Amino acid sequence: MLKGSFHLTNADNGAMTETTLLTVQRTEVLVAAQAYCTYVSKTWKILTFILALPGVGVCMANAFLKMKAHSHEQPEFVPYTHLRIRTKKFPWGDGNHTLFHNPHTNPLPDGYESSHH
Amino acid sequence: MAHQAHAYHMVDPSPWPLTGAISALLMTSGLATWWHYKTTTLLFLGTTLLLLTMFQWWRDIIRESTFQGHHSTPVQKGLRYGMVLFITSEVFFFIGFFWAFYHSSLAPAIELGGLWPPTGITPLDPFEVPLLNTAVLLASGVTVTWAHHTIMEGARKPALQSLTLTVLLGLYFTALQAMEYYEAPFTLADGVYGCTFFVATGFHGLHVIIGTTFLMVCLLRHTHYHFTSNHHFGFEAGAWYWHFVDVVWLFLYISIYWWGS
């Protein structure tokens, strides 16, 4: 950051040369631009900690409470033909389980694997 | 000694485009041999070669720009056009999957019960984890903007803080989505609902992982003083990509999670 005062006059007759004046003006613009940059990034910092992250926190709490309020039972199994399609075996395991298979929530084509939790 | 009489970058000969093309061939044929003959050799080779190509090609670009100074203003302008065009192509990629979703859900087939979600499908509650995921990505959009301004300002510590926060939020999203994938009562094999859901959100998740990796590389580079306050296009490209990922999620959330439930 720029500190201190500027010596505006040149040595000979005390008047400002055009070069000195332009240098001063450019410096003032840079100082102002730097201050603006700091202002804008502070604004986004405030938005982050006052709006964005608390918003995430609220949604975390909401999701947690809603999950706890869920019933934990398995939905009844109906062997619909339009679901649990097995046109071709999966290229892993026994070919009958999806990649993110969850024995509690994902029944196989003929029913749940574990009948109790 | 000869000097170039223009501001453009005539790149030195490089093997990485060839290795990239070979890895594309190995990965595609590898997928076919995996699915039909249960062998993963080609796929494994192709993936390894892809990772090596990406690492070395992008490392070379960093060497050419940050260390050798080849990225003049016109060169940077070309890179900006390139990134914009690439992201545009990705937008069209996702448009295809949204087309498939709306085609299937606006006039549900009789085999599904003539309704959407289809009979027997329990959709995820859009106001549980999906809403949290939306908040996480929106927050990461705020933090990445904060990061950009701190980089422009030349403020090192806030830049590292905000970039790290952005990466953490991205990782949190991926973790939440992986948990959702495991807990979901429907799977990829559950007809057109499962297919449109997991293909669209799955490709989005892949893009989140790519975007997070991009931002992690930016964070690493920033710790090594690669970025200046007025030349940090690597970061800007990463931030643009991240905003794109966020916007795609918003469309996914509104269409598939909310309207589609």
From TrEMBL, chain A:
Record field: transmembrane: 46-65
Keyword Membrane: yes
UniProt KW Calcium keyword: no
Gene Ontology terms for molecular function: enzyme regulator activity; oxidoreductase activity
Topology class, membrane: Single-pass membrane protein
GO cellular component term, pick one: mitochondrial inner membrane
Pathway: Energy metabolism; oxidative phosphorylation
UniProt cross-references to SUPFAM superfamilies, sorted A to Z: Mitochondrial cytochrome c oxidase subunit VIa (SSF81411)
Signal sequence coordinates: none
Pfam families with a match to the protein in the record: COX6A
Subcellular location: Mitochondrion inner membrane
UniProt keyword list: Membrane, Mitochondrion, Mitochondrion inner membrane, Oxidoreductase, Transit peptide, Transmembrane, Transmembrane helix
Swiss-Prot/TrEMBL GO biological process terms: mitochondrial electron transport, cytochrome c to oxygen
Family: Belongs to the cytochrome c oxidase subunit 6A family.
Protein's name in the database: Cytochrome c oxidase subunit
Organism: Monopterus albus
Automatic annotation (TrEMBL), chain B:
Heme-copper oxidase subunit III family profile domain mapped to chain residues: 4-261
One Gene Ontology biological process: mitochondrial electron transport, cytochrome c to oxygen
Compartment list: Mitochondrion inner membrane
Catalytic activity: 4 Fe(II)-[cytochrome c] + O2 + 8 H(+)(in) = 4 Fe(III)-[cytochrome c] + 2 H2O + 4 H(+)(out)
Domain of life assignment: Eukaryota
Pfam families xrefs: COX3
Topology of the protein relative to the lipid bilayer: Multi-pass membrane protein
GO terms for cellular component: mitochondrial inner membrane
Transmembrane segments: 16-35, 41-58, 79-102, 159-179, 191-220, 240-260
GO MF terms, alphabetically ordered: cytochrome-c oxidase activity
Keywords: Membrane, Mitochondrion, Mitochondrion inner membrane, Translocase, Transmembrane, Transmembrane helix
Function: Component of the cytochrome c oxidase, the last enzyme in the mitochondrial electron transport chain which drives oxidative phosphorylation. The respiratory chain contains 3 multisubunit complexes succinate dehydrogenase (complex II, CII), ubiquinol-cytochrome c oxidoreductase (cytochrome b-c1 complex, complex III, CIII) and cytochrome c oxidase (complex IV, CIV), that cooperate to transfer electrons derived from NADH and succinate to molecular oxygen, creating an electrochemical gradient over the inner membrane that drives transmembrane transport and the ATP synthase.
Subunit structure: Component of the cytochrome c oxidase (complex IV, CIV), a multisubunit enzyme composed of 14 subunits. The complex is composed of a catalytic core of 3 subunits MT-CO1, MT-CO2 and MT-CO3, encoded in the mitochondrial DNA, and 11 supernumerary subunits COX4I, COX5A, COX5B, COX6A, COX6B, COX6C, COX7A, COX7B, COX7C, COX8 and NDUFA4, which are encoded in the nuclear genome.
Stored PANTHER family: CYTOCHROME C OXIDASE SUBUNIT 3 (PTHR11403:SF7), CYTOCHROME C OXIDASE SUBUNIT III (PTHR11403)
Family: Belongs to the cytochrome c oxidase subunit 3 family.
Full protein name: Cytochrome c oxidase subunit 3
Taxonomy of the source species: Eukaryota, Metazoa, Chordata, Craniata, Vertebrata
